[in-house]
Each structure stands twice: as structure tokens, then as C-alpha cells.
Amino acid sequence: MKLNRKLSFYYLQFLLLMSLFSCSDGTDVSRQQTFRQVLGDYRLDLSRTKLSDGYINDSDVYKNLILTFYSDSTFRMNFEVPFLYDTSGRWKAGTINEWCWILFDSFKYINENNYSGSQFTRPFQENGDTLILINAATPRKNQQTLSDIYFKKIKSNAEL
């Protein structure tokens, strides 16, 4: 009888420990889901992005801007624009409750942490388009900041 109680006690402790270690807030799963959703090619959406006076004259050039997010956590743009600091760098996926981040290669971050770089949204749907929004991205030196830069997904590829 004592042996059965002892075994039951140890078994109960084991189950309690296992449940503690297996509990998760879902952050990693959410971040992985966002990571997969972000991968792909995006074109600057000029119908949603409000170019300032200094940029509006070159809108015919900017409409061809492509931003690609790769599975090795890097990104690349097909040409330089004054309202985004660099054409390449790294990116970090956020969760449902967190921003995603782009970190430009040539920018000198003082203390890189979870909030370094320029923040952007998870992909979201609007009027049948899949979009991301880069919020107040770091512009090139001495250039104007655009508060909202929208990119429309044109190609999904988990293997990029």
C-alpha cells in the first residue's frame, strides 16, 4: 500500500513537472508563423503610400521598387531610394502582438536589441491585397521620413 502511494506521489510530481515545461505562451509558434507569412517579394504600393513633395516627382521610378524577404532572415531591395536607409540588411519576425523589424546593413546601431531598426507589420489583407506597412522607416542621411510605407505582396515563396 505504501509503495503504491509513493509511486502515485512520484507519478503525480512527474506529470506536474511535465505540464510546467510543456506550457508555452505560443510566442515561438506565432513568430514562426509570421516568419513564413512575410517571406516573398513585395512591390511599393504607391496608391497607399503618401509620398512627400520631395519624392512625388520620382514616383514613376519608385513604383518599381521591390523588397524581398529571404528565409535566411535577410532582405534586399532592387535599387536605392532616399526614404529607406539601405538596400539590404536583416529582418526579425514579430508575433501577433509585436512589430517585425528590419535592420539596415550600413546603419550603425548603438545597442542592437529587439527594438532596433525600422518596424513593420505582419502581412495583412486589405481589399484582396496582402500588405505590409513599414512605420516611419529610417531614411537615408538628410532625407525626409515617410510615416507609412506600404508594400504589396507580389510573390510568396517559403524557399527564398
What can you see in these coordinates?
This protein is α+β, with helices and mostly antiparallel strands and 160 residues long. The protein has one domain. The chain is 26% helix and 28% strand. Strands 1-2-3-4-5-6-8-9 form an 8-stranded antiparallel barrel.
SSE blueprint:
Elements: H1 2-22, H2 27-38, E1 40-44, H3 53-56, H4 59-62, E2 66-69, E3 74-77, E4 88-92, E5 100-104, E6 118-120, E7 124-126, E8 129-135, E9 148-156
Antiparallel strand pairs: 1-2, 1-9, 2-3, 3-4, 4-5, 5-6, 6-8, 7-8, 8-9
**Tally of separate domains:** 1
The counted number of beta strands is 9
Strand order of the largest sheet: 1-2-3-4-5-6-8-9
Net shape: globular
Determine the strand fraction and express it as a percent band: 25-35%
Distance between the termini: 62 Å
The number of helical runs is 4
The major pleated sheet works out as: 8 strands, antiparallel, barrel
Point out poorly predicted stretches: 17-24
Helix content: 25-40%
Mean pLDDT: 86
Structural class: alpha+beta
- Structural Rg: 22 Å
Concise synopsis of the structure shown:
26% of the residues lie in helices and 28% in strands. It has 160 residues and is an alpha+beta fold.
Features of the shown structure:
single chain, 160 residues, alpha+beta, 8-stranded antiparallel barrel, 4 helices
